[in-house]
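Bug #77: duplicate submission created two jobs. Keeping one. Sequence:
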Amino acid sequence: MSTLTFSPIPDAPISTDEFRALEEKVMLAVQTIRSERDARLVAEAEANGLRAQLQAHMSRTMANDLELSRLREERDGIRQRVEKMLRQLDELN
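Kept job's structure:
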């Protein structure tokens, strides 16, 4: 456990210009933090949207792969039937 000790601030007066400069630095820091938070929220929303799009694309890709496989099987079946009919025609000649 650490203990923090605070030393009293000397009673040296701070000039008005120094105080204004410090105030401006604090306000700039606050604005920067707000801006960065807003940018983070926008980036997170965009990332979530992109994740949803990716998921949709992946689902469509899987469906397309299944359909392609089914069509190939159907094509192979038709090819076999055509070859069988061609053999039968050859036998007739």
